[in-house]
Design goal:
Helix 2 packs across helix 8, helix 2 crosses helix 9 and helix 4 crosses helix 11. This protein has 11 helices and 9 strands. It binds aspartic acid. The site of aspartic acid has 15 residues, from helix 2, helix 6, helix 7 and strand 7.
């Protein structure tokens, strides 16, 4: 009995010890991805986890915590122990949720310590292979004619697919039916099977399907065409300049994680972003790693804050905000 009490007291003592930045990490780091496995965010996470693990000398294990537009995964990390062993890979959701949601089980701005920016990823507007439209203008015409008879898959309020879908519907002045999914990996399956008509998704998933001809591509959401898709017009060229969005990814630790631990994770991120294999895989998916300077907590924090400000009026104009 005495022994057990002593053990319990010891356990409490150990868990209350400050995290040692010198020995961090001395066990597996968990990387939470807020969308489904196999999707465009997950792909980035898996490349990152492998390379970061090499630098950290510990495995970095990806776990998909999906649902609620990517807020469930964020919530898991915000509520985790701030010791650097639970980190989040998230995207532009971190800039839109402060406007989109009135109440969340975490603070979407102050609940995290930014570690560094990872990669900017363009989006593509896709249709099922047998959709009658062949250009963005024809797609717009088709969507306007169908209205709610047309459907678009998206991963919920706060997802990139939802953001892009909202911009498109707002820009063309037509509402379509949205089909909710837990990530764009399942959304792509819906599109391939023809159960949904349209999907807007990151190139980190879509290039493969565009290249093998199993989906139709109507536009890229960037101001310039992409070198990996030179024949695909931009949304502006296709007559919808309001549909512009670049998805950016960043790494986060829970608020209160010691700065030395955040810095150690940031150095591992920088190592990963210099890795030739990762750079090549990113290039194959239409993206590039962020610069070493941007893969730092301070650059990430400043960019994140600017993105929250930038998206607020755009979301408000599109009627997407919590009042
Ligand atoms: N693209 C996300 C994914 O990785 C979902 C989204 O943001 O739409 O599944």
């Amino acid at each position: 009995m005495f022994h057990r009490t002593l053990m319990a007291a010891f356990a409490v003592f150990v868990s209350a010890l400050p995290v040692s930045a010198e020995t961090f990490p001395d066990r597996t780091v968990q990387l939470i991805v807020p969308y489904a496995a196999g999707g465009p965010t997950d792909v980035v996470a898996r490349l990152l986890s492998e390379a970061m693990g090499r630098d950290l000398g510990q495995s970095v294990v990806v776990e998909n915590v999906t649902g609620a537009g990517g807020t469930l995964g964020a919530s898991r990390v915000a509520q985790a122990k701030p010791d650097g062993y639970t980190v989040l890979l998230h995207h532009i959701n971190m800039a839109t949720t402060p406007t989109l949601y009135r109440r969340l089980p975490y603070d979407p701005v102050n609940g995290f310590e930014p570690i560094g920016l990872v990669t900017p990823v363009p989006m593509t507007i896709l249709g099922r292979r047998d959709l009658p439209a062949n250009t963005l203008a024809e797609l717009v015409e088709w969507l306007r004619a169908k209205g709610e008879g047309a459907n678009l898959a998206d991963a919920g309020l706060g997802a990139a697919s939802q953001l892009c879908g909202t911009l498109l519907q707002h820009s063309i002045g037509t509402r379509v039916t949205t089909v909710p999914v837990r990530g764009t990996a399942p959304a792509m399956q819906e599109l391939l099977s023809g159960r949904v008509d349209v999907l807007c998704d990151q190139t980190t998933q879509t290039l493969e399907y565009i290249r093998n001809g199993s989906v139709k591509v109507f536009a890229v959401t960037t101001p310039q065409r992409l070198s990996v898709l030179p024949d695909v017009p931009t949304t502006a060229e296709g007559g919808q300049p309001g549909v512009q969005v670049m998805i950016w990814h960043g790494l986060y630790a829970p608020q209160g994680t010691p700065r030395a631990v955040v810095d150690r994770l940031s150095r591992a991120l920088q190592f990963a972003l210099r890795d030739p294999k990762l750079i090549q895989r990113f290039a194959d998916m239409g993206t590039v790693p962020e610069s070493q300077e941007r893969a730092t907590p301070d650059a990430h924090r400043a960019f994140w804050a600017s993105e929250v400000q930038r998206w607020r009026p755009i979301l408000q104009a599109a009627g997407q905000y919590a009042d």
